């Protein structure tokens, strides 16, 4: 059986094509103003990689904040939609069957999910603030005039702790500008930024309780500067699976397979 | 906690007494506004104040209680925004009680809003303030009203009754001091009322008002208990428009009469299986005041076949309850005998009021959790939606501890952030999306768009 999961996120659209539990293809692209077009493009990319057409896919399940844009819409024609929380839990359970806590940090949202046997027991999502998500790193990278992909490695060069107290992304940017004017090094500021995100995410996740195994997924899991402060804040080691940004799409594909059976 | 059940369609019909409820509330706001034209008195205070006491001054004494008024302002978001602007321009921070800011804003703008949204020029200043003190915001609220009115040229005398004696487990002789402490304040308060109004106090009116209050608040609990039926005859969104009579005029005979009519109609709905929500298949309760400008979240729930059957807030803000010997939580029955004298009336009123379940928030989070667990069990509730209400420090005090307690008891909980009276603190789209995620995690899908 072949199924697909489409994760239409705030920044990237991701597709996973699954055959009998094995991944045939993965693809991702930036989401533009035309959400359906972006999702359709990446869906075509995945089909091409797998050497398939839409007709070969028995069921497509979509997730992510733009999931309704592809529901029953040509050419993806997603059959169902599921929330990010349910897709995350299913996907994380697929890659780490011992998972009890999932932390998903994407571009716009951070989520903590308590999982039992792949099912959601409790969850928490950051409220109205980008200061606990990937967008925050991007904004701060702009302020530091550093490429976003260099932010993590840069932060790892610092051993200093500089508090960043602003709870708002916009105010935090002002705080970064103040630090720049105070002649604080870019390495120290980059670390302060990652410490701040880790602090916000950990305080949110602690509300539902942290139980091992803890799995970090989402685009921010690719950032090497984020994991150490998060592990320090939560006092636990955290598993980052391969292709962490695709775990939600994988979960959607698994749900599609379960439903199609 | 019970599992979600199969979808079936229940018969529904509007409440027959709906218009009566609307008119009762509308008239009450207007009576306050017009009291002076009729030679009467106006007073201001909180919905929890001992409103039966000023009733002894005469039958032409009207109050507008602050919280329902603040909620009315909140419902009309344009006016609420003007009130917030006015209070912030006057130097008050937006983190204060949202009802209080709505009320102060109304005074600062010198405008009064009626229940249909009509804004009248000239805020009707009270002749005196009669307040209770259980919540810190409540304590300050009317001090500021007095100050604001003084700046407008009117001296408004104020009296506040401290009720911080705790929630009584029982009234053993060791706890008499709690009752006596408040009774003494009320006795002094009656003397104060005579002095500041120049009126002679009428004990017969007091006794009737106390008896009305006891009956009205017991009746409301009885009505809420009927919502244990499946399907629920009332949904919480509707209940908000019904409990409000108890917050405005619990001591008035028309409140008792209305609740008797409502109780009989709800009983009839239960008997006939008439539902509030046609596709009820999942029952929730909420907690604290809702975000009044966004009651559409209740309509969103209905799309999933979910109905909010009430809350400790809706049941216990005005309703009076007690634990039975069999550990069930039930309406508190009225005392066997109507008080006859001032002393008996004051004793009865204090003994009764100290059992108010919502006061438990301020003393014992564990007791609040216990009461919520009882509601979950007895009202056959599947999940609890907790409003982390940034507009009310008093009622959201301990709410995170309640969440832990409920989760430990195996009850699914969905917390959401908001504000009862300030729309700037509520993210409608985000809350709707998260609510959908929660229902999905509970195995529910939308039945309709």
Distance between the termini of chain B: 27 Å
General shape of chain B = globular
Strand content of chain B: 5-15%
The count of β-strands of chain B is: 12
Which percent band covers the strand fraction of chain A? 15-25%
- Average the pLDDT over all residues of chain B and give the rounded result: 93
Lateral strand order in the biggest sheet of chain B: 2-1-5-6
The name CATH uses for the topology of the largest domain in chain A is Nucleotidyltransferase, domain 5
Gap between N and C termini of chain A, in Å? 9 Å
Supply the key terms.
A: Nucleotidyltransferase, domain 5; Nucleotidyltransferase, domain 5; 2 domains; 5-stranded mixed sheet; 4-stranded mixed sheet; 8 helices; 9 strands; 21% strand; globular; B: 449 residues; 12 strands; 49% helix; 13% strand; disordered N terminus
Describe the structure.
The complex is a heterodimer of chains A (261) and B (449). Chain A is α/β, with parallel strands linked by helices and 261 residues long. Chain A has 2 domains: 2-86 and 246-260, Nucleotidyltransferase, domain 5, CATH 3.30.420.40; 97-240, Nucleotidyltransferase, domain 5 (2-Layer Sandwich). Helices cover 39% and strands 21% of the residues of chain A. In chain A, helix 3 runs parallel beside helix 5, helix 4 (148-155) crosses helix 6 and helix 6 crosses helix 7. Chain A is globular, with a radius of gyration of 19 Å. By secondary structure, chain B is α/β, with parallel strands linked by helices. In chain B, helix 5 links the parallel strand 5 (128-133) and strand 6 (158-162). The radius of gyration of chain B is 21 Å and the shape is globular. The A-B interface holds A 65, 82-86, 120, 122-125, 127-128, 207 and B 400, 407, 412-413, 415, 417, 427, 430, 433-434, 436-438, 440-441.
């Amino acid at each position: 059986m072949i199924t697909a999961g489409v994760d239409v996120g705030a920044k990237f659209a991701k597709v996973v094509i699954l055959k009998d539990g094995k991944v045939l293809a993965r693809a991702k692209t930036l989401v533009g103003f035309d959400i359906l077009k972006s999702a359709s493009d990446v869906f075509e990319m995945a089909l091409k990689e797998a050497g398939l057409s839409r007709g070969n896919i028995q069921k497509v399940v979509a997730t992510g904040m733009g999931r309704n844009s592809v529901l029953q819409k040509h050419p993806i024609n997603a059959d169902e939609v599921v929330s990010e929380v349910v897709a995350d839990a299913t996907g994380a359970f697929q890659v780490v069957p011992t998972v009890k806590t999932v932390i998903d940090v994407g571009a716009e949202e951070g989520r903590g999910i308590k999982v039992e046997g792949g099912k959601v027991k409790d969850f928490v999502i950051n409220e109205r603030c980008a200061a606990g998500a990937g967008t925050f790193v991007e904004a701060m990278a702009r302020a530091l005039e550093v490429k976003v992909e260099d932010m993590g490695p840069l932060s790892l060069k610092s051993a200093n702790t500089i508090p960043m107290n602003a709870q708002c992304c916009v105010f935090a940017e002002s705080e970064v500008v103040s630090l720049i004017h105070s002649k604080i090094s870019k390495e120290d500021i980059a670390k302060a930024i990652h410490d701040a995100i880790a602090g916000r995410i950990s305080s949110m996740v602690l509300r539902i309780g942290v139980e091992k195994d803890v799995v970090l997924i989402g685009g921010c899991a690719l950032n090497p500067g984020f994991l150490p402060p998060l592990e320090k804040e939560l006092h636990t080691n955290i598993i980052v699976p391969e292709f962490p940004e695709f775990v939600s799409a994988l979960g959607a594909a698994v749900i599609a397979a379960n439903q199609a059976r | 906690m019970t599992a979600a059940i199969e979808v079936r369609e229940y018969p529904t019909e509007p409440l027959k007494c709906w218009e009566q409820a609307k008119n009762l509330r509308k008239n009450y706001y207007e009576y306050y506004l017009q009291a002076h034209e009729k030679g009467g008195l106006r007073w201001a205070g909180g919905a929890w104040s001992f409103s039966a006491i000023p009733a002894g001054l005469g039958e032409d004494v009207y109050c507008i209680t602050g919280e329902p008024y603040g909620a009315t302002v909140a419902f009309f978001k344009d006016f609420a925004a003007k009130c917030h602007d006015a209070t912030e321009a006057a130097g008050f921070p937006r983190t204060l009680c949202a009802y209080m800011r709505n009320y102060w804003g109304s005074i600062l703008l010198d405008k009064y809003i009626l229940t249909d949204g009509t804004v009248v020029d000239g805020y009707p200043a009270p002749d005196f303030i009669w307040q209770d003190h259980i919540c810190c915001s409540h304590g300050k609220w009317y001090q500021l009203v007095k100050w604001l009115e003084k700046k407008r040229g009117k001296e408004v005398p104020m009296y506040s009754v401290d009720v911080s004696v705790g929630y009584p487990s029982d009234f053993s002789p060791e706890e008499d001091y709690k009752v006596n402490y408040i009774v003494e304040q009320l006795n002094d308060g009656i003397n104060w009322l005579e002095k500041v109004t120049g009126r002679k106090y009428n004990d017969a009116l007091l006794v009737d008002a106390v008896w009305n209050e006891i009956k009205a608040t017991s009746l409301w609990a009885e009505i809420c208990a009927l919502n244990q039926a499946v399907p629920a005859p009332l949904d919480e969104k509707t209940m908000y428009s019904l409990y409000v009579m108890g917050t405005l005029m619990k001591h008035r005979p028309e409140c008792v009469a209305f609740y008797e009519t409502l109780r009989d109609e709800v009983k009839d709905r239960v008997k006939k299986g008439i539902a509030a929500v046609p596709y009820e298949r999942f029952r929730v309760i909420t907690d604290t005041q809702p975000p009044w400008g966004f009651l559409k979240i209740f309509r969103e729930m209905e799309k999933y076949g979910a109905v909010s059957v009430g809350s400790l807030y809706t049941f216990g803000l005005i309703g009076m309850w007690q634990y039975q010997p069999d550990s069930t939580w039930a309406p508190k029955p009225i005392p066997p005998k109507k008080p006859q004298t001032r002393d008996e009336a004051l004793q009865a009123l204090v003994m009764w009021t100290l059992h108010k379940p919502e006061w438990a928030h301020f003393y014992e989070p564990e007791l609040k959790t216990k009461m919520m667990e009882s509601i979950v069990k007895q009202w056959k509730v599947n999940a609890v939606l907790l409003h982390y209400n940034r507009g009310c420090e008093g009622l959201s005090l301990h709410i995170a501890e309640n969440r832990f307690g409920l989760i430990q008891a195996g009850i699914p909980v969905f917390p959401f952030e908001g504000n009862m009276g300030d729309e700037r603190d509520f993210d409608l789209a985000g809350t709707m999306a998260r609510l959908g995620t929660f229902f999905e995690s509970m195995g529910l899908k939308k039945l309709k768009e």
